[in-house]
Amino acid sequence: MSGLRVAVVGARGRLGRLACEWIAEERGMALVVAVTRDDDLAPLLAGARVQVGLDLTRAGIGAAHGLVMLRAGVRPVIGTSGVSQAQVQELDVLALDLGLGGLVVPNFSLGALALLRGARTVQGVLGDGCPVMIEEAHHAGKKDVPSGTSLHLARNLSGGDPSGDGDRVSIRSDRMPGSPASHTVAFSGSGESVRVAHAVHDPRAYKAGILLSLRYAAQRSGIAVGLEEALDAGQASGSPWDHR
Predict the structure, then answer these.
(1) Which of 23, 27, 73, 94 could form a disulfide with 31 if both were Cys (CB 3.0 to 4.6 A apart)?
(2) For the whole model, what pTM was predicted?
(3) Interatomic CA distance for residues 185 and 62, integer angstroms
């Protein structure tokens, strides 16, 4: 078995099952272990000689899994919501101390990254003082409110303030049965408004971002946040990073 040795943590979930298929089919990658909630994570990672671990578990436990991965010599890609700025810093300190790296990804969709970049462009034209409303909707079973994507958007549109600058950037969250994952960034200018929107209708939207993130984490030093650096690195180096 050759190629980048990858573990998927949360392999029985909807996205976890798909990620296992995508990695197993991907040239230059090898799915070496599929981890479920019944498994003891650290011994499995060590025994399979995993290089990069993809966490797709439930909200709130991704950071703890990331620490386990790093201590096992594995580079984490955390796609689970609920990783705080303080937890990212803790992961980063440990990764650098161990000579490793990884990535925390609020949203693996390339379209969500396009939403962020488009929102930054609008904000640059209308001015940083322009009020911003982030509106997000997800299926009724999504537990984290607001979503990790919304918090990532808020931090980026409020000058990096982890709080999202409640005076200028606000978030409205809806949870409805059958609702697709959608995010809209609305700006109120002087006598005008601008809305930038994105929605995911099929989980295949996450495939390119997952594969890019795994490759990027394999050569990253320290812990980065978001898909942006991985995409930029992939575009700069060309094949085999460009999976769009």
Answers:
(1) 23
(2) 0.89
(3) 26
